[in-house]
Amino acid sequence: AITTGSELRKQVTARGWLHPIFYRVQATNVQIDARTVEFSECSLCPAMRVVPSGSFLMGSDDAPNQAPPRLVNIKTFAISKFEITRDQWAACVANGSCSRAKALGDAFPVEVTWNQAQQYVKWLSTITGVTYRLPSEAEWEYAARAGSTQRFTFPESEVDQYAWYFGNRAGTGYGPSRVGLKKPNAFGLFDMFGNLSEWVDDDYFETHSGAPSDGLPRKGSFSEKVVRGGSYRVEFKFLSAAQRYGQPNYSEVHQDIGFRVVRDLSTVSK
């Protein structure tokens, strides 16, 4: 289970009273080194899991926009253990750095635009003094696969143990679920598939041809951003590790797209 804050904070947030006094951010003074597996750098910061460096075959031949598969080298980084929650987003709103989301103050993942996600990582970088950002598409798939080379990173017969999708959310309020209720993947990450789809930093290209092999985000002059992971609204077949699509970065919030964050570990001592 994750901490969602005091009952008082939840009550005032539910009434729209996002005063900073209820969202004071206190540094944890965590020391991150080569032995660190999980950390959080402030009282309202997301829990982060360290992902080891490595190489993997990104993409697939299942669809034209997933091809061609190619070898990508990834440096170590940390990624949030859960999708960013409404409570974590409320802290950014209360401190004047993020615009309001449609719902705040609990452990459900927050639905935001790509630009709003950028507000959050800028705020997180400011309060911690280190670089937080959206994951690149390559980092996202590497973290989601967690060493798997299969189309699905979990046994197909066990999908209900790992993901919220149309097959187990329809008729149950039909929306995202609280984070962390399903099993994590081999890197200790929850809800990488299903629940909410997730923004990444890359612009959307129709194929992987010409994409960088070093794990950096791919940029063009496009208004569409890449979305990964599938959501509670999709069928099981759209939860494959290589599944991707482009979404225009409108100011309107999409009801099934959230995000998680990455912390740069390039300056961490070995």
3D architecture notes:
- With 270 residues, the protein is an alpha+beta fold.
- The chain is built from 6 helices and 11 strands.
- A 5-stranded antiparallel beta sheet has the order 1-2-5-11-6.
- A hairpin with an 8-residue loop joins strand 1 (38-39) and strand 2.
Q: Specify the overall morphology.
A: globular
Number of helices: 6
Distance between the termini: 31 Å
Task: Provide the β-strand percentage band.
Answer: 15-25%
Rg, alpha carbons: 18 Å
Strand and helix map with partners:
Layout: H1 7-14, E1 38-39, E2 48-51, E3 54-58, E4 70-74, E5 77-80, H2 86-94, H3 114-128, E6 132-133, H4 137-145, H5 159-162, H6 166-169, E7 197-203, E8 224-228, E9 244-248, E10 257-258, E11 262-263
Parallel strand pairs: 7-10
Antiparallel strand pairs: 1-2, 2-5, 3-4, 5-11, 6-11, 7-8, 8-9
